[in-house]
Amino acid sequence: MPKIKAEKKSRIHNEIAKQGIQFNKDFGQHILKNPLIITSMLDKAGLRPTDVALEIGPGTGNMTIKLLDRVKKVIACEIDTRLVAELQKRVQGTPYQSKLQIIVGDVLKTELPFFDICVANIPYQISSPLVFKLLLHRPFFRCAVLMFQKEFAQRLVAKPGDKLYCRLSINTQLLARVDMLMKVGKNNFRPPPKVESSVVRIEPRNPPPPINFVEWDGLTRIAFVRKNKTLSAAFKHSTTMAALEKNYRVHCSLHNKEIPEEFDIKQKVQEILLSAEADQMRARTMDCDDFMKLLHAFNSEGIHFA
């Protein structure tokens, strides 16, 4: 009988297996094991020796060790205390120990310190909230090179008219320049995820656009509920109208403006859409400039989305 080759495992994964540590899929633990992909991600991040780098979900430290080689300091945020212990053991007694700061906890609930750059293999279930946590972080970081689920990455970079263009696309592209860097097959991870992955580079726009992001998000939320419908149709939903009327009345009260007895919020909204020549526009084909003009048109008439 032909010999069956034993499955190759890295030394670190062997150590973890001996201790009975199973990767926790609830935390999205799919450890990136291919050193060539790790090196490529770090190369594309444009690291400098003076940088403070943030890594989210360092796992067993495969990327962390290579990061520590290239930057002044690494801040690693890890939710799993078992892997924190492994990472600490891996740098103990080495020159890396003093360069590594580990934050134990959920990154979404953690107040992040200053960092120049973020390089990470992101747990896929926190992708969307994490992107906006990073983009709204101050002071600004220079760029982030992040691994995401392939379809999520495609949504981030989608352009108006693309099938995957959505609220995530336009909200991200308002705040940052986003580029697709490379595709990564599922066999590059342990355990392999069920989906393919992609690496994306995100550079925050600095200075940011002069927009209240909460208002912007409120507008795009309404427009993209049914992105193929005209804005005229999208703005006829009763709950949307009720929220806008409430905001309008608060605005008028704060600015001592009288509201006519026959005031009709639906009519007001349709008049604004017509005057902005946006009533027949559809969210799926609108870019950031289109939404900026529309938000300005609503705000100048006292209609607010937050």
UniProtKB/TrEMBL annotation:
<comment type="similarity">
    <text>Belongs to the class I-like SAM-binding methyltransferase superfamily. rRNA adenine N(6)-methyltransferase family.</text>
</comment>
<dbReference type="GO" id="GO:0052909">
    <property type="term" value="F:18S rRNA (adenine(1779)-N(6)/adenine(1780)-N(6))-dimethyltransferase activity"/>
</dbReference>
<dbReference type="InterPro" id="IPR020596">
    <property type="entry name" value="rRNA_Ade_Mease_Trfase_CS"/>
</dbReference>
<feature type="binding site">
    <location>
        <position position="57"/>
    </location>
    <ligand>
        <name>S-adenosyl-L-methionine</name>
    </ligand>
</feature>
<keyword id="KW-0694">RNA-binding</keyword>
<keyword id="KW-0698">rRNA processing</keyword>
<feature type="binding site">
    <location>
        <position position="30"/>
    </location>
    <ligand>
        <name>S-adenosyl-L-methionine</name>
    </ligand>
</feature>
<dbReference type="InterPro" id="IPR001737">
    <property type="entry name" value="KsgA/Erm"/>
</dbReference>
<feature type="binding site">
    <location>
        <position position="78"/>
    </location>
    <ligand>
        <name>S-adenosyl-L-methionine</name>
    </ligand>
</feature>
<dbReference type="GO" id="GO:0003723">
    <property type="term" value="F:RNA binding"/>
</dbReference>
<dbReference type="Pfam" id="PF00398">
    <property type="entry name" value="RrnaAD"/>
</dbReference>
<feature type="binding site">
    <location>
        <position position="32"/>
    </location>
    <ligand>
        <name>S-adenosyl-L-methionine</name>
    </ligand>
</feature>
<dbReference type="InterPro" id="IPR020598">
    <property type="entry name" value="rRNA_Ade_methylase_Trfase_N"/>
</dbReference>
<keyword id="KW-0489">Methyltransferase</keyword>
<keyword id="KW-0808">Transferase</keyword>
<keyword id="KW-0949">S-adenosyl-L-methionine</keyword>
<comment type="function">
    <text>Specifically dimethylates two adjacent adenosines in the loop of a conserved hairpin near the 3'-end of 18S rRNA in the 40S particle. Involved in the pre-rRNA processing steps leading to small-subunit rRNA production independently of its RNA-modifying catalytic activity. Part of the small subunit (SSU) processome, first precursor of the small eukaryotic ribosomal subunit.</text>
</comment>
<dbReference type="InterPro" id="IPR011530">
    <property type="entry name" value="rRNA_adenine_dimethylase"/>
</dbReference>
<feature type="domain" description="Ribosomal RNA adenine methylase transferase N-terminal">
    <location>
        <begin position="37"/>
        <end position="206"/>
    </location>
</feature>
<feature type="binding site">
    <location>
        <position position="121"/>
    </location>
    <ligand>
        <name>S-adenosyl-L-methionine</name>
    </ligand>
</feature>
<dbReference type="GO" id="GO:0005730">
    <property type="term" value="C:nucleolus"/>
</dbReference>
<protein>
    <recommendedName>
        <fullName>rRNA adenine N(6)-methyltransferase</fullName>
        <ecNumber>2.1.1.-</ecNumber>
    </recommendedName>
</protein>
<comment type="subunit">
    <text>Part of the small subunit (SSU) processome, composed of more than 70 proteins and the RNA chaperone small nucleolar RNA (snoRNA) U3.</text>
</comment>
<dbReference type="InterPro" id="IPR029063">
    <property type="entry name" value="SAM-dependent_MTases_sf"/>
</dbReference>
<feature type="binding site">
    <location>
        <position position="106"/>
    </location>
    <ligand>
        <name>S-adenosyl-L-methionine</name>
    </ligand>
</feature>
